[in-house]
Amino acid sequence: MALTIALSASAEGDAKSTKTSGFDWSPVMEAIIQVESEGNPNAVSGNSVGVMQITPILVKDCNDILKRQKSKKQFTMADRYSVAKSKEMFLIIQKYYNPENNVEKAIRLWNGGIKYSIKATNRYYRKVLAKMK
Fold first, then answer.
1. What DSSP string runs through 89-108?
2. 53, 43 in Cβ contact below 8 A?
3. Which residue has the higher pLDDT, 35 or 11?
């Protein structure tokens, strides 16, 4: 279950960067990818698709964030199948909703949305942590 929001390393910056504010999200993103889809960019589960199992709501949230930041960049539903664009959306979400770069918050946010519950995201959080080791 993917979160309902996304974040970008710099909406118009280097799409290949996996850092926000100097923080390297690569290990977290790779663990989430393993938990969500085992690395399959064509994975589909309900309305969640791609390696990070991104929902239409998350795409909309990313686009709203980008709009508020006066960026001309916008994501499409098809972008959810792109590993690079999925990671970019993750970074946009983290930068916006998790500026303190808290790894636990990032994982729970991705799974449970911006109003996530600790109890409801515990299993997912433990699975992602296990993949990070």
1. HHHHHHHHH-TT--HHHHHH
2. yes
3. 35
